[in-house]
């Protein structure tokens, strides 16, 4: 990244953070939503479900709840991009002599900061309902690193979606079609060995599953029964590889879509 | 640089719909060219192409001396774009909007601040500078948008229907501010639906309809060509027409041509006069 791109991205991150401090509803949604997630999934469900191996459900489930915020980042970024297209700001940015990636880097980085903020809150609430990490500090940090990396990928995917669909309604509809299977056809909430064979394979190769399992390992939380497919046997390297592959696929497509972006009129 | 904008054989098609069917136009340095035409004529498409936002299907374009296909980034350094709707961030204040553009243009923080202050003063926004721009009136937002397009001190300015939807006072204020830019040597491509606006600002006009240029000239020349005077009188029955025609002919110094045609109700007829070619002022 050239120093210009860095300066431009930083200026645009500043713009987004100002939005956050001035629109209370946005701040509420990234603050309250994660808290509600933890309470509903961790506390409410936790009292009804037993984890094989005798560990507490709260410990099993936290990685899955973190993933929900990571996945919802797709919609956050997509709607932001649609907003900029709608009000003509995207045209203004595109008529400026700035790097093609700066606008996208600014937005995705900002949204990643919001995800990190949600993680901090969720960890606090998680602690209160009984979630504990049983590993060294660096491993735990590595787990959050993987989550953030996946969050970056979903954010770029969201930007691509926003640029391609150019309408909030379409983003909500198509976004759900992408997010739902990715988060629920994974080990985020359920052990995979109960699934029919082909579905189990899909779920095991889902980057979300690798990241979730890697996080459970790095946090020292129970993994549940994991299956013997390659990604489930080597979750940490595979989480890294699958997420980086997703980024490598999506980022160039998104930059191209930005170049061609036209407001819907 | 003698020509600010030159376009030859510009074409653009969306699926089945041919939006531009071979447009040639040129804007001289320091000139204001008005692009006049109804909605859907292709005005905005032309602006979007010239401002590097949309690639043409065919045509050779240079803006500010640079080739559009080869050096769009050089063009972006030298143009300002004010769109149909004000493209400013509604949450940020006027000052923050202009500073952001300044930083993105590589002015550096200090210069960006100074340039923002200067423009806020110049566009009569200093008092509102620290309010979020969503609280601005329509006219103020357009002025902020215009200011935002001038942060880089561009040599070529695109104004895409800059005053659509504004009240008379705001419109005149904006015109005055555009004129200041023209006086300082900026070349302008202005699109508008209003003949009055074109008349006020443009040195030369082209008229666009369904993707083709159908007329060109100074505002005066065009008004003479297309805007002839016309008198229409409706009568209750066809039998009354000859008397009316005679009365009008007697009253005018030069016998006008006239046509008769039925109007909505079959029992009513009207006579319409247009000045005969001889009687036009030249």
UniProtKB/TrEMBL annotation, chain A:
Membrane topology classification: Multi-pass membrane protein
Coiled coil ranges: none
Location within or outside the cell: Cell membrane; Membrane
GO BP term (any one): response to antibiotic
Segments crossing the lipid bilayer: 27-49, 61-82, 112-131, 137-163, 170-190, 236-255
Residue ranges of every copy of the ABC transmembrane type-2 domain listed in the record: 25-261
Primary localization: membrane
InterPro entries in UniProt: ABC2_TM (IPR013525), ABC2_TM_bact-type (IPR047817), ABC_2_transport (IPR000412), Nod_factor_ABC_transporter (IPR051784)
Domain of life according to the entry: Bacteria
GO molecular function, one term: ABC-type transporter activity
Record-level GO cellular component terms: ATP-binding cassette (ABC) transporter complex
Pfam families for this protein: ABC2_membrane
Cleavable signal peptide: none
Keywords assigned by UniProt, alphabetized: Antibiotic resistance, Cell membrane, Membrane, Transmembrane, Transmembrane helix, Transport
Similarity remark: Belongs to the ABC-2 integral membrane protein family.
PANTHER family linked to this entry: NODULATION PROTEIN J
Protein name: Transport permease protein
């Amino acid at each position: 990244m050239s120093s210009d791109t860095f300066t431009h991205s930083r200026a645009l991150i500043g713009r987004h953070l100002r939005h956050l401090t001035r629109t209370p509803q946005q701040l509420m949604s990234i603050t309250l939503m994660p808290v509600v997630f933890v309470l509903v999934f961790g506390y409410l469900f936790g009292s009804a479900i037993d984890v094989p191996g005798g560990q507490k459900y709260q410990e099993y489930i936290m990685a899955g709840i973190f993933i929900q915020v990571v996945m919802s980042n797709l919609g956050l970024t997509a709607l932001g991009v649609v907003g900029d297209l709608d009000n003509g700001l995207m045209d203004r940015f595109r008529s400026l002599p700035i790097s093609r990636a700066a606008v996208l880097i600014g937005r995705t980085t900002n949204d990643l900061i919001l995800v990190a903020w949600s993680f901090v809150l969720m960890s606090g609430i998680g602690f209160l309902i009984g979630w504990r990490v049983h590993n060294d500090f660096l491993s735990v940090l590595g787990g959050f690193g993987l989550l953030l990396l996946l969050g970056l990928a979903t954010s770029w995917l969201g930007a691509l979606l926003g640029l391609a669909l150019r309408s909030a309604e379409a983003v909500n509809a198509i976004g759900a079609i992408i997010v739902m299977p990715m988060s629920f056809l994974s080990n985020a909430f359920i052990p995979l060995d109960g699934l029919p064979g082909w579905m189990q394979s899909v779920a095991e190769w889902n980057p979300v599953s690798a990241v979730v399992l890697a996080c459970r390992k790095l946090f020292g939380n129970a993994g549940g029964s994991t299956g013997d497919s390659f990604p489930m046997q080597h979750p940490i390297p595979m989480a890294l590889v699958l997420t980086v592959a997703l980024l490598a696929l999506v980022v160039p497509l998104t930059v191209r879509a930005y170049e061609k972006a036209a407001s819907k009129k | 640089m003698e020509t600010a904008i030159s376009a030859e054989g510009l074409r653009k098609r969306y699926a089945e719909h041919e939006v531009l069917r071979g447009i040639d136009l040129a804007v001289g340095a320091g000139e204001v060219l008005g692009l006049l035409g109804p909605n859907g004529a292709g005005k905005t498409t032309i602006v979007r192409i010239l401002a590097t936002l949309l690639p043409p299907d065919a045509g050779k374009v240079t803006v500010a001396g640079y080739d559009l296909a080869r050096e769009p980034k050089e063009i972006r350094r030298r143009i300002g774009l004010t769109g149909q709707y004000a493209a400013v961030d509604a949450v940020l204040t006027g000052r923050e909007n202009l500073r952001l553009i300044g930083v993105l243009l590589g002015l550096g923080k200090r210069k960006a601040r100074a340039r923002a202050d200067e423009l806020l003063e110049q566009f009569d926004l200093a008092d509102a500078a620290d309010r979020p721009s969503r609280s601005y009136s329509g006219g103020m937002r357009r002025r902020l948008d215009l200011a935002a397009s001038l942060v880089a001190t561009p040599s070529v300015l695109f104004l895409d229907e800059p005053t659509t939807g504004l009240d008379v006072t705001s419109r005149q204020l904006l015109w005055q501010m555009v004129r200041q830019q023209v006086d300082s040597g900026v070349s302008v491509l202005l699109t508008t639906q209003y003949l009055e606006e074109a008349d006020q600002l443009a040195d030369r006009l082209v008229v666009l309809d369904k993707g083709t240029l159908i007329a060109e000239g100074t505002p005066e020349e065009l008004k003479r060509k297309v805007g002839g005077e016309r008198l229409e009188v409706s009568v209750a029955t066809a039998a009354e027409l000859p008397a009316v025609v005679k009365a009008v002919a007697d009253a005018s110094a030069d016998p006008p041509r006239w046509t008769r045609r039925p109007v909505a109700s079959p029992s009513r007829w009207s006579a319409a006069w247009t000045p005969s070619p001889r009687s036009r002022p030249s």
